[in-house]
Specification:
Length: 163
Amino acid sequence: MLNRTMRAAVCAALTCGVWGVAAPALAALGGTPTPPPAGAVSSSLAPVVHAASGAVVTAPYTVTQTTFTAGTIVREYVSTAGTVFGIAWNGPIMPNLPVLLGTYFPQFDSARVALRAAHPGRGPIAVDLPDLVVHSGGHMGGFSGQAYLPQSLPAGVSAADIQ
């Protein structure tokens, strides 16, 4: 059984791992993609969509998927202009949200703190702001989420496409 001091130390260590050290991200939301870190496996693809006419066309974005050594997968959604407009993740370790969200992290963190103050406890986080949406949840060993910039979604792309 852990005493109160030991529990606090364990919680602090886990928090640092979840928010600061685990699975470095590829790019900041709203920025340009960066190369994957050493040891990660990365691939890019241009998704296809089915037009109303039934024709198959290339989507107006590319997806870069990176699998980190710990097993976490991060997908970057990049516009034809080269800007990351959405990010999705899933895996055993939470990705580094300050890096993933970049300049949007303080806005997310303030909203997260307010949400937890209004609704204490654990559970998924859903931050839906006019210029930033972040949904994140899971449990130890199974995290998932998505973040995107609604104003930067390419024409014909919806939040449901970021997964």
